[in-house]
């Protein structure tokens, strides 16, 4: 199993500097992994750290959905999403969807610096790891309500 992780990086405007600081502090650890980021966040990280970053659209312009699609397609192993709990977000439903998809598909989710520090310091971070897949066959096979005739 490949040890290379596919990591999504997202930050609200008020948290972009914090995420950039975290990525810079962990540059060498992150350099051997595939990084994906929403628009501005990806541009700032690539420009300031020199790391290659696959850039998606800006979050409110569809980048959050693109990140969610990567999760749903099994193309991400972890999501580092520094969210700003003090600001109203016009695309808050998109943000909630990313958190939900990370839970549904059982991928690592770090929503703040402390959690991200614990994740990257884990011996599992650079190890081959296959998360347990959740079995949704019961949900998918459920009986749908009948329509009135």
Question: Would you mind describing this structure in some detail?
Answer:
This protein has 149 residues and is α/β, with parallel strands linked by helices. It has a single domain (6-140), classed as Methylglyoxal synthase-like domain (Rossmann fold). Helices cover 41% and strands 14% of the residues. The protein is built from seven helices and five strands; from the N terminus they run E-H-H-E-H-E-H-E-H-E-H-H. The chain has a five-stranded parallel sheet with strand order 3-2-1-4-5, sandwiched between helices. Helix 5 (92-104) links the parallel strand 4 and strand 5 (108-110). The chain is globular, with a radius of gyration of 17 Å. It starts with 5 loop residues before the first strand and ends in a 9-residue tail after the last helix.
Side by side, the strands of the main sheet go 3-2-1-4-5
Number of helices: 7
CATH top level assignment: Alpha Beta
Output the CATH topology: Rossmann fold
Supply the CATH architecture.
3-Layer(aba) Sandwich
The total count of strands amounts to: 5
Task: Give the CATH superfamily.
Answer: Methylglyoxal synthase-like domain
Structural class: alpha/beta
- Whole-number count of domains: 1
| Rg, nearest Å | 17 Å
Strand content: 5-15%
């Amino acid at each position: 199993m490949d040890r290379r992780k596919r990591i999504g990086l997202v930050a609200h405007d008020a948290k972009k500097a914090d995420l950039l600081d975290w990525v810079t502090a962990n540059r060498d650890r992150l350099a051997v992994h595939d990084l994906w980021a929403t628009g501005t966040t990806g541009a700032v990280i690539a420009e300031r750290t020199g790391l290659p970053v696959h850039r998606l659209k800006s979050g409110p312009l569809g980048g959050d959905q693109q990140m969610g699609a990567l999760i749903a397609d099994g193309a991400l192993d972890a999501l580092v999403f520094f969210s700003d709990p003090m600001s109203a977000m016009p695309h808050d439903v998109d943000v909630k969807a990313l958190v939900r998809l990370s839970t549904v598909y059982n991928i690592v989710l770090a929503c703040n610096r402390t959690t991200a520090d614990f994740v990257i310091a884990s011996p599992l971070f650079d190890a081959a790891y296959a998360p347990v897949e959740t079995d949704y066959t019961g949900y998918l096979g459920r009986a749908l309500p009948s329509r009135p005739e």
